[in-house]
Amino acid sequence: MPIQVLPDSVAARIAAGEVIERPASVVKELVENSFDAGATRIRVDLSDGGRESISVRDNGDGIEPDEVELAFERFATSKLSSDDELMGIATLGFRGEALPSIASVSIVEVQSTTSDGTVGRDLLLEFGKKRKSEQIGAPPGTSVTVRSLFQNVPARKRFLSSASGELSRVHAVLTNYAMARPDVAIEFVADGATRWATGGTGNLRDVIVTLQGAEAASLMLEVDSQPDGSEMAVSGLAGSPSLSRGNRNFISLNVNGRWFLNRRISYAVEQAYHGFLGERRFPIAALTLRIPDGDVDVNVHPTKAEVKFLREQAVFGMVQKSVRQALLDHAPIPSVIPPRAPGIIRAGGVVLPPLANPLWPNPLTPGAPPPPSVMGDHQIENDFTGPSTPRDTLPVLRLLGQAHETYLIAEGPDGLYMIDQHAAHERVIFEEIIARANASEPESQHLLVPETFELTPDQEDALMKVSDQLGQMGFVLEDFGPRTLLVRAVPRVLGDRSASKTLLEILDGVIESVAPGAWTERTYATLACHSSVTAGRRMNDDEARELLKRLEAAEQPNTCPHGRPTMIHMSETAMAREFHRT
Ligand code: ADP
Ligand code: MG
User: Which of 280, 469, 483, 571 is found 20 to 30 A from 41 (Cα to Cα)?
Assistant: First the structure.
């Protein structure tokens, strides 16, 4: 279809809004145009995180030479002509807004040649004004180069992040599209160096090898199902539970090749892992939904990031069931998980403690109520409480024993203490790690056999942010080929526990932390967590006494670094009352 300007009646029905906010939105619009042009190869090149230049080159159908200028008119598109086509859009673009929006805030140059033509056109616009338009001889396809983004709108330019921040946003857009379209070879280049390139083999697992590494790819389970009698289907890969991550950014969804965000459908994927993953752990998944175009409304969001499904409940059910089925077919169900009561962690499981939970007031915050406490199934208020004043240190405790291989039972001058061994150990180690790091006295332990592991580009960026801190904690790390890290030594507290697992969780925590610097404490907490005795481990009396002694010396003995209580205290008075002695 030739490019034409949409009639006002159609333009008025288009979900309008700002489409260009930052380099990542430029890249998203340009690669979507490349996909729509049937490209099988797309190369994206950034300088300075896109702040200096962004270029997208494809081998698609190209634009007719006499239509190149028209493509920069508002609402000029070759993909839509009447408004009854608005529901049932098969192309990624349809509004004719991207090129004019980009042109109004940058210096943009387009070179395009159609596959059947021999001459193409080179058009240069500076902040919307034409500066050059000439014939060129070039191979079929289109390249668009965007320079000096927002130079004419300083207020918007100031909102851009650092080059690495913008780069990681572009990386996120491209990885999601690489997973949505394994049939297209995508190359991502930054400041002259190729960050990654997919082969365009059509095989999703090959894309995962590129983006997540061979080991992760081998742990991805096939999802492929079409509910009986339905026109919908879902296919793709879902990570086995051992591949879990600390945030939900690793769930990538697309419908008919269009990457989209939808909280409910992501939640359907998370739901499928219920019972397979610990708390605050999220799966990796890359799923393609096949849904008739008429059942998907893509015209609900200015940047087309979100879509609406006509039958959302059915889509939710299909996704949840098929991912669940893939897991049940390939992975055993973990042993029974006992019902969980607040304040008590699962016995017997190596379950990571929850991260700071806003619903869970930190008992050390002045004025906050004490943590909820339970005994058996009864919630008994105010009788079992943490020590009452903030920053209370513990009295000297006498060990009575261990219960359920998870709790230490001790007696103090004022009643009984039930101590969660994992939470208590975490607190102790957390304070010790920080003290050592502050004193620049890390204690390292060399690994007999250095461990290597692969990093995703996101994790690589995160590593740059925390590498100093990791050194202060006692890690000795080296580059070992592209995106591969060699671990020579680990903090002594970690002992022979898995170095790579700990590091990966630290890096995922950094990726997840939005506030700059928020990851520092979290990084210490993750190391403390991995270095601590788990619930479900028998502790002998000497070990248990040693732990109590160190907890008594801790500055904030009442909570673990994630804010969970380390102990429940039952005063002698409370005991007497329960036994009707008073
Ligand atoms: P939309 O994609 O919504 O149609 P755009 O402003 O992104 O609007 O692009 C306008 C038109 O320019 C498209 O409809 C298409 O005809 C043409 N076009 C843009 N980029 C390319 C490309 N990479 N290859 C071929 N044609 C393109
Ligand atoms: Mg477009």
Answer: 483
Looking at the fold, whether 75 and 216 belong to one and the same domain comes out as no
Kindly state whether residues 124 and 21 are assigned to the same domain. yes
End position of a domain, from candidates 307, 332, 357: 332
In a domain, 404, yes or no: no
Q: Say yes or no: 32 and 171 in one domain.
A: yes
CATH code where residue 460 lies = 3.30.1370.100
For residues 375 and 398, give the distance between their C-alpha atoms in angstroms, rounded to a whole number.
21
pLDDT, tens digit, 9 for 90 and up, residues 309-335: 999 999 999 999 999 999 888 754 332
> Which pLDDT tens digit goes with each residue over 450-488?
888 888 888 888 898 888 889 989 999 988 877 888 999
What is the distance in A from the centroid of ligand 1 to the CA of 5? Answer: 12
User: Which ligand 1 atom is the nearest neighbour of the CA of 34?
Assistant: 23
pTM, two decimals, is 0.64
Q: Determine the distance separating the centroid of ligand 1 and the alpha carbon of 262, expressed in angstroms.
A: 26
Whether 103 and 118 share a structural domain: yes
Q: Give the model confidence (pLDDT) of 541-564 as tens digits.
A: 999 999 999 998 888 888 788 777
Spell out the residues 6+ positions from residue 340 whose beta carbon is closer than 8 angstroms to its own.
346
User: Which of 278, 311, 332 corresponds to the end of one domain?
Assistant: 332
Query: Which atom of ligand 1 is the closest one to the Cα of 94?
Result: 3
Q: What is the pLDDT of residues 7-65, one digit of tens each?
A: 777 777 766 556 788 999 999 999 999 999 999 999 999 999 999 999 999 999 999 99
Domain residue limits at 270:
204-332
C-alpha 35 – ligand 2 centre gap (Å):
10
Secondary structure (DSSP) of 440-497: T---EEEEEEEEEEE--HHHHHHHHHHHHHHHHHT-EEEE-STTEEEEEEEEGGGTTS
**Is residue 491 exposed (0-12), middle (13-18) or buried (19+ Cβ within 10 Å)?**
buried
Q: What digits encode the pLDDT tens for the residues 289-299?
A: 999 988 998 88
In the chain, the number of structural domains is 3
In a shared domain, residues 306 and 180: no
